[in-house]
Design brief:
Chain lengths: 578, 111
């Protein structure tokens, strides 16, 4: 029987037309099958999602796009350029933690008065009236209320359920050691940008060379938390005892230029950037330009020895003040007699040192000043750095006064780097705060003086501590060499009689120097303990001795037999007394 | 209607390829989501670790430890020269027992 639903063809085609229609029918069937399969797949998935509930699958589908984005960008941008900072032993100095900050959208707030009252109860530091004012300002849709909430505060605010109060996760820079590394590491502002110290320097590092300062995705510094703590403690004690305007300390590895510790007082807590006094942010160790006085004499001696202008047996007459034109140069510890070269340094004779500088001459002195980088701003990875104040035109008086540290102003770090070169065999290393391999150093070391001059200078520096002006820095077993410094401060264009910058720079052990310790006090006051003296020998040398006593065992410096008597006898100075 | 063998092969290939594309696309999505989940977990762990590290650093602050130590041992001082020596310079047990051990002090074993 014929199917009534199917119409009878009115025209029967034959040949090629018939075949073409058949092919088209086949293709239509195939296309229909494919569409059917597709619909079946979609229907199957829908049935599966509807009847076989999979919360994880729904969850995944809902954030697929963000998941892809997160997979492609796993690290937030802010963290990428603000890495954790560690000391040389892997102790954390600075890191970012995720904290929540509270903001409000006044446009969606309902009961503003009640909201302000409830919020002020949880955050008492916020003023209720001020909050109400913010909540009722309907022209804004985003107002910060409180940054970096405590997790407990966040929980309590969340529990209030007030519409319009929202949280934003932010990274907060934290410093677990408080003010210990205040000046050297610095701090960052609310916006995450470095405000001072190493933090500020890291913002200036070009992105393409940022990897060079990273180790295991972190910044590893040359600092040592233990030594930093010791230095901070001892400089703080000197600060509390002598009440200077500022005080600073530096501990440096003389053989690499690595800074192990750096302190400047008064300091601040970088965890509380808003409470920091601007004056406390002054880093005396790197930004302060000071006429540092006699700690500069070793540079004059090294220049003279390196040019064979003096030797240890030569004697200079220091019986009378040195008169150059109208200027009269005299000694603080006047011996009023001819002094040998070692004695000139031991007793810190300005007259003798001035005469040595005159032997050397201006050209050589200037040449060596350049070698010691006394004309340059240092490359050290810290932003607060001084440019030395040096004379534009040299005169004979200027040459003599500069030979004992007056007439040119340098930062303590300049002097520390220079003296390291004098004692380490003659190589100048740029002071650095970031741990680097030899090939990645800031600048390659340059020879400043000969190895022989360096060896002779070490002995002279040891004599200063063994029997000269630096005996307060002598530490049994660690053979300290060094130099005291006391420079009168300039007040109203004249040198003050009673205000000084007192300092002591020490290296140990002098026969194989490893570390340098430098303490400077700006305008210290005398105490009964120091018999009223405010010289570097009395105010800074004891602090250096204490630092060496405490740090030497930690740094595994092996104690040696004391050689005070032997070395003084060798130079015929067994009866030496300052 | 006669369908050629090549047409069957073509249809099966198309279907197989479509299935493969569908399968791989789903697989890629799944893996991407897993990576995102793992990264998210890593980020949480990383944050937790950083908190722990910061706490550890704070608890080991030399100043804090110094104050705690001073509460228990207020007579502690830095070691001095005579308290150091080489292992090879220490007297042997035989020497110790032969001599009066009580007379051997750090001072007289320093080379």
């Amino acid at each position: 029987m014929r199917n009534p639903a199917r119409p009878r063809p009115s025209l029967i085609l034959e040949g090629s037309i018939d075949r073409a229609i058949k092919r088209a029918q086949v293709r239509l069937i195939i296309l229909g099958c494919m569409i059917l399969i597709t619909f079946l797949a979609v229907a199957g998935k829908t049935v599966k999602l509807t009847f076989f509930f999979e919360p994880e699958a729904i969850k995944r589908l809902s954030y697929t796009k963000s998941a892809i984005e997160r997979a492609e960008n796993p690290v937030p941008t802010s963290e990428k350029f603000r890495k954790s900072i560690y000391d040389r032993n892997g102790i954390l100095i600075s890191s970012n933690l995720i904290t929540s900050s509270l903001y409000c959208d006044p446009k969606v707030m309902i009961d503003e008065k009640n909201a302000a009252h409830q919020l002020a109860a949880i955050l008492p530091e916020l003023d209720e009236k001020d909050l109400y004012k913010k909540f009722t300002d309907k022209t804004k849709s985003f107002v910060w209320l409180k940054r970096s909430l405590h997790p407990k505060q966040k929980y309590e605010i969340n529990a209030l359920g007030i519409p319009g109060l929202n949280f934003e996760d932010e990274e907060k820079r934290i410093y677990p050691h408080g003010n210990l590394f205040a000046h050297v590491i610095g701090m960052v502002g609310q916006d995450g940008h470095g405000l001072s110290g190493l933090e500020k320097y890291l913002d200036t590092v070009p992105i393409d060379s940022y990897d060079k300062v990273l180790k295991n995705d972190s910044i590893v510094t040359t600092l040592d938390t233990r030594i930093q703590s010791i230095l901070h403690d001892e400089v703080q004690k000197a600060f509390d005892k002598h009440h200077p305007v500022n005080a600073s300390g530096i501990v440096m590895d003389v053989n690499t230029g690595e800074i192990l510790a750096m302190v400047s007082l008064p300091d601040f807590d970088p965890n509380l950037p808003r409470s920091v006094k601007p004056s406390n942010m002054f880093n005396m160790a790197t930004l302060g330009d000071y006429e540092l006085g006699s700690v500069f004499k070793p540079f004059t001696f090294a220049t003279a020895l390196d040019n064979d202008k003096i030797n240890e047996k030569m004697i200079f007459d220091a019986s009378h003040p040195l008169q150059i034109g109208k200027a009269k140069i005299s000694d603080y510890h006047a011996k009023n007699r001819p002094l040998s070269v070692p004695e000139i340094l031991m007793y810190s004779s300005n007259i003798g040192t001035g005469k040595i500088a005159m032997e050397v001459g201006m050209d050589k002195m200037q040449d060596y000043f350049h070698r010691f980088h006394f004309y340059d701003k240092l490359d050290t990875e810290i932003q607060e750095k001084s440019t030395p104040t040096t004379p534009k035109k040299w005169s004979e008086v200027g040459l003599v006064t500069m030979s004992f540290g007056h007439g040119l102003a340098l930062s303590p770090l300049h002097v520390a780097a220079g003296l390291s070169a004098i004692v380490n065999g003659g190589y100048y290393y740029e002071p650095t705060l970031i741990k680097r391999s030899k090939s990645e150093q800031l600048t390659q070391p340059t020879r400043v003086i000969s190895k022989k001059t360096s060896e002779r200078m070490r002995v002279l520096l040891r004599l200063v501590v063994a029997g000269g002006s630096g005996t307060h820095a002598n530490v049994d077993g660690y053979l300290v060499g060094g130099k005291t410094g006391t420079a009168n401060k300039i007040e109203g264009g004249k040198y003050s009689d009673n205000r000084v910058v007192g300092s002591f720079i020490g290296v140990f052990p002098y026969n194989d120097p490893k570390y340098l310790v430098f303490v400077v006090l700006d305008d210290p006051k005398g105490t009964p303990d120091t018999h009223g003296f405010i010289t570097g020998a009395w105010v800074a040398a004891p602090a250096v001795a204490n630092v060496i006593t405490r740090m030497a065992p930690i740094m595994k410096v092996r104690p040696q037999q004391d050689d005070t008597k032997e070395i003084l006898t060798k130079f015929g100075l067994e009866n030496a007394s300052d | 209607m006669k369908v050629r063998l090549s047409t069957y092969i073509y249809i099966i290939s198309c279907l197989a390829m479509a299935c493969m594309v569908y399968y791989f696309e789903n697989k890629v999505h799944e893996v991407t989501e897993k990576i995102a989940d793992v990264n998210e977990k890593l980020s949480h762990y990383d944050n937790d670790l950083r908190v722990l590290e910061a706490e550890w650093s704070y608890l080991n602050d030399p100043d804090r430890l110094g104050k705690l130590t001073a509460q228990i041992h207020d007579d502690m001082n830095s070691p001095i020269r005579v308290q150091f020596t080489n292992l090879k310079d220490l007297p042997t047990r035989e020497v110790m027992s032969a001599s009066n051990a009580g007379n051997i002090t750090a001072q007289n074993i320093i080379p």
